[in-house]
From TrEMBL:
<dbReference type="InterPro" id="IPR029055">
    <property type="entry name" value="Ntn_hydrolases_N"/>
</dbReference>
<comment type="pathway">
    <text>Nitrogen metabolism.</text>
</comment>
<dbReference type="GO" id="GO:0016041">
    <property type="term" value="F:glutamate synthase (ferredoxin) activity"/>
</dbReference>
<keyword id="KW-0285">Flavoprotein</keyword>
<keyword id="KW-0411">Iron-sulfur</keyword>
<dbReference type="GO" id="GO:0046872">
    <property type="term" value="F:metal ion binding"/>
</dbReference>
<comment type="pathway">
    <text>Energy metabolism; nitrogen metabolism.</text>
</comment>
<dbReference type="Pfam" id="PF00310">
    <property type="entry name" value="GATase_2"/>
</dbReference>
<keyword id="KW-0560">Oxidoreductase</keyword>
<dbReference type="GO" id="GO:0051538">
    <property type="term" value="F:3 iron, 4 sulfur cluster binding"/>
</dbReference>
<feature type="domain" description="Glutamine amidotransferase type-2">
    <location>
        <begin position="1"/>
        <end position="131"/>
    </location>
</feature>
<keyword id="KW-0314">Glutamate biosynthesis</keyword>
<comment type="similarity">
    <text>Belongs to the glutamate synthase family.</text>
</comment>
<dbReference type="GO" id="GO:0006537">
    <property type="term" value="P:glutamate biosynthetic process"/>
</dbReference>
<dbReference type="InterPro" id="IPR050711">
    <property type="entry name" value="ET-N_metabolism_enzyme"/>
</dbReference>
<keyword id="KW-0479">Metal-binding</keyword>
<keyword id="KW-0003">3Fe-4S</keyword>
């Protein structure tokens, strides 16, 4: 689960950075899924900084003997280090604009600066169904 910039160009740049890191570790990014959200319960200030939330799908690397969960843990860590290092040399709008909330093949983590009663409403399309909730 990724928090990405609202700006389409900044969002695409963040995805490119992650994809390059994934490929450098032997993974192939298969695609991205926009996570449906309902922001009607958010306040004005929260709406101004609300990220775009997406999930990434990619293949395990055959180069590593580590299981897929371990590979994703490493990929998440390396991606964040690359983004932080790049941020030290970039102005606002750089690759530091993304945050990896979770990266797992077993568990989906829904996060946000929300009150507990807002979480299910915000992610209703996913959490409001029997198959996901």
């Amino acid at each position: 689960m990724f928090f990405l910039p609202a700006s389409e160009s900044r969002r695409e740049q963040s995805k490119i950075v992650f994809t390059k890191v994934a490929e450098s570790l032997g993974h192939t990014v298969l695609g991205w899924r926009m996570v449906p959200t309902d922001n009607s319960g958010l306040g004005k200030s929260a709406l101004q900084i609300e990220p775009v939330i997406e999930q990434v799908f990619f293949t395990p690397t055959p180069r590593s003997k580590a299981d897929f969960e371990q590979q994703m843990y490493i990929l998440r860590g390396v991606s964040m280090v690359v983004a932080i290092r790049a941020a030290l040399n970039l102005q606002h709008g750089g690759v530091r604009d993304f945050y990896i909330c979770s990266l797992s093949s077993r568990t989906v983590v829904y996060k946000g600066q929300l009150k507990p009663n807002q979480l299910k409403e915000y992610y209703y399309a996913d959490l409001g169904t029997e198959s996901m909730g």
